[in-house]
Every structure is written in structure tokens, then in C-alpha cells.
Design a protein that fits this description.
Organism: [Mycobacterium] crassicus
Protein name: Helix-turn-helix transcriptional regulator
Helix content: 25-40%
Strand order of the largest sheet: 5-4-7-6-8
Strand content: 15-25%
Distance between the termini: 35 Å
Region (Disordered): 288-321
Pfam families: HTH_3 (PF01381)
Largest sheet: 5 strands, antiparallel
Number of strands: 8
Order of helices and strands: HHHHHHEEHEEEEEHHHE
Domain HTH cro/C1-type: 17-63
């Protein structure tokens, strides 16, 4: 938030540009030099503020804000501008026929009628520009510092990955309310089904430090058991395996949600996702998986097995989230 200049600071910054000093300014305003000096802590009368804006060649609002700062009525720009309604207007980017970004700035007005005039002139001129197509502007109103951030929660995700052997924390998303089933003390562990070696651990919650600690403790416990995949080791999983695992997890979640249907606590399932999972679920559960993709299904086929085992771990014990 920008702090305001006092009137004396504003004067001292602009007088050199005008080739004047304080004595010259006092003479023009017909006040004493000592009066000018007192404006660092006092606010002059309205006529003097307007005259000073003219002499300094500065907008009246800027000088008035500095005077309010000197008088102790305001400290920042927000103290002066907060709550005021403005009208903003700009060229509509959709009207441009040029691939390059339109770098001409828009405009903000305190008077809505001036905004309308700006928009009208801009549209008429753009109609005559060959590469801009039809004229058009976008207009709207806004209240300075008047918008409240909607009620929300931020979910953080801590993750450990065997390649780096480090824990990172990032923002997982912003939600209107706490997602159902969110447990910051439960670490989700990803392990190779064949060996049980763990290659990824994650946790999600509303507090970044909590989810980081959850993952760190889980990794420490798994490391002590000797079940972590080393940084130089490969999962030997391809993209197809990851995709198949993801679809299988969706299918499992769908089956669990269906079993819980009718319960007030059961999560709602998106209708489109329901349709996709109804088709995907049975096919994944019953179809054999072709290892290597050979043409002869009788010699290169065996029942499909999820190559990744995903399970929750409660490293911090039973705690309230």
C-alpha cells in the first residue's frame, strides 16, 4: 500500500523541476517562507491547496492527498481512495485483427459520462483502422478496495518423490469449503505392487506445515523399514501403467461412492464422470492386460494387475484435523 507524501515532501520533489525554491514558492502564493515550512505537519486552506496545485502543475487530487497527509487525516492512498466508485473502459481485444497484443492502455474515470465519451471516440477511430476490424470497447465499474475476497479455503499438498528424496509443499487448490474426506494427518503412499517399494508419498490439508510434517514422518517410518525406492532406481513404469492406475482409482472411488449412495455424507458424483466410470470400471476389472502388446492373446496375456499400490498411512497417530 503506497504511503502518501506530506505537502512539504511533494513541494521539495517538484520545485527543482520548475526552477524554483521555497522562497520563490512563498512569494508566488503570497505567504511567508515559515508558513510553507509548517506544511510538513499542517494542512493549508482549500484556496491555498488549489493555488499550490496550479503552481506545481500537479493534479489537485494529488496535492489534496498530500495536504491530508500533512494534517494527519490520511497516511496511505487507500485512506483517500478506498470506497470510491470508478468507471473503467478499454478496447475490446476480441475486436483486434492483429495477432500481436494490443498494448494501448485503457482508461479509468471518476465521471461515467467521460468514460462514455472516451469509449465513443475510441470506437469511431478504431472503425477507421484497417487492422483493427470493427470498433468495440469493454466498460465496467469498480469500487476501489471495495471487493471482499469470497469465503474460501486453501488446500496445500506436501509431496515426497524418490527421484529427489525431498519434500515439497505447494498450493493444491482453492475451494469454497473444506473438501470432504480431507485428512492432513493421513499420508497417501504410492508403492510398486510387485515389490512394495515406495516411490511417492503425499498429504493434503489446510495447513502447509502440518502436511509437510505428515509426509516427513511417513517417509522416515518407511525409510526405517527399508521400503523406499532409491534415488537412482527406476519405477520401470510407463505412461500406460500410470494411466491405467489412475482409471482404476477412479473406478474404485466410484464403486465406493455407489455403495454409500443414500447416505447424507456420501460425496456427489458428477453425472459425466459417472457415465465414463460406468463404462471404464467393469472393463478394467474384468479385461486381461496384454504385457508387451503382442498379437497373440493366448501366449502374451495374463490377468491385469494394478502396477501401483495406493494406501493411506497415519504416521502421526489418531489426531483431529
Amino acid at each position: 500500500m503506497a504511503a502518501l507524501d506530506t505537502l512539504s515532501e511533494l513541494i521539495d520533489r517538484h520545485l527543482p523541476e520548475l526552477g524554483m525554491n521555497r522562497e520563490d514558492l512563498a512569494r508566488v502564493l503570497e505567504v511567508s517562507p515559515s508558513t510553507v515550512s509548517r506544511w510538513s505537519t499542517r494542512m493549508p486552506g482549500p484556496e491555498t491547496v488549489r493555488a499550490l496545485a496550479t503552481v506545481l502543475d500537479q493534479p489537485y487530487g494529488v496535492v489534496l492527498a498530500a495536504a491530508l497527509r500533512s494534517g494527519g487525516y490520511a497516511a496511505t492512498t487507500a485512506d483517500v481512495l478506498s470506497g470510491h466508485r470508478l468507471t473503467f473502459v478499454a478496447r475490446d481485444p476480441a475486436c483486434s485483427q492483429d495477432d500481436e497484443d494490443d498494448d494501448e492502455p485503457g482508461a479509468v474515470f471518476t465521471d461515467p459520462e467521460r468514460a462514455k465519451q472516451w469509449a465513443h471516440v475510441r470506437e469511431e477511430l478504431d472503425l477507421r483502422i484497417a487492422d483493427y476490424g470493427h470498433g468495440g470497447t469493454a466498460t465496467g465499474s469498480a469500487v476501489i478496495d471495495g471487493a471482499c475476497t469470497p469465503a474460501h479455503v486453501v488446500v496445500f499438498r506436501a509431496a515426497w518423490e524418490h527421484r529427489t528424496d525431498t519434500v515439497t509443499v505447494s498450493e493444491a487448490g482453492v475451494f469454497a469449503e473444506v473438501p470432504s474426506g480431507l485428512d492432513p494427518h493421513a499420508a497417501q503412499v504410492e508403492a510398486l505392487s510387485e515389490t512394495g517399494r515406495v516411490f511417492a508419498v503425499s498429504a493434503c490439508g489446510l495447513d502447509a506445515d502440518t502436511v509437510r510434517q505428515t509426509v516427513e514422518v511417513a517417509v522416515s517410518q518407511i525409510r526405517a523399514d527399508g521400503n523406499l525406492l532409491g534415488t537412482q532406481e527406476s519405477t520401470e513404469l510407463g505412461l500406460a501403467e500410470y494411466l491405467m492406475h489412475s482409471q482404476m482409482m477412479h473406478a474404485r472411488a466410484y464403486r465406493e461412492a455407489r455403495r454409500a449412495e443414500g447416505s447424507p455424507a456420501s460425496p456427489a458424483i458428477d453425472p459425466e464422470m459417472r457415465k465414463r466410470l460406468e463404462k471404464i470400471g467393469p472393463r478394467l476389472l474384468n479385461a486381461p492386460y496384454r504385457w508387451g502388446g503382442g498379437a497373440d492373446s493366448t501366449t502374451d496375456a495374463k490377468p491385469w494387475r494394478d502396477p501401483i499400490t495406493t494406501y493411506p498411512m497415519q504416521p502421526l497417530g489418531s489426531q483431529d484435523s
